[in-house]
């Protein structure tokens, strides 16, 4: 595997930063190199947030934001607009928390070349966690769509990052999204 770059888009409080960290932890546990870091302005719940993850089989020396991601993950469907997909590599992958179909998302992003997968992570989070924190649900979709890290590695990383009282509900959210993601 060469360097794979993932850009996460969400809003403060949805867990985009934690999701990016969980993927990096899972990759490292599998013997890969990884880095994860956030980018946000004023810290407040609901403000747009970006997070980044890089995964590689060799050391990663780049330390900048990710401008041309291979994969884009969107935790908040209200962020969907053509500008969001700027920089996405030709034929890149987009994973979106939405009730919309992959075809509808392609049209919104104006990226017919993209491989789009959708999952209703909000519904899953509300049913499992009783809160609209969608990061662990979107992780299940990420694992299924990308194959970059294993489901088992992500589940172990979730255990290390979420509060102990919510571990089982978060694991259920990951597993449900893994099964329910729509991958055309």
From TrEMBL:
The keyword Transit peptide does not apply. Pfam families: POR. The keyword Transport does not apply. It catalyses: 2 oxidized [2Fe-2S]-[ferredoxin] + pyruvate + CoA = 2 reduced [2Fe-2S]-[ferredoxin] + acetyl-CoA + CO2 + H(+). Its EC number is 1.2.7.1. Keywords: Oxidoreductase, Pyruvate. It comes from the Archaea. Residues 12-179 form the Pyruvate/ketoisovalerate oxidoreductase catalytic domain. GO terms for molecular function: pyruvate synthase activity. It is an enzyme of class 1 (oxidoreductase). This is pyruvate synthase.
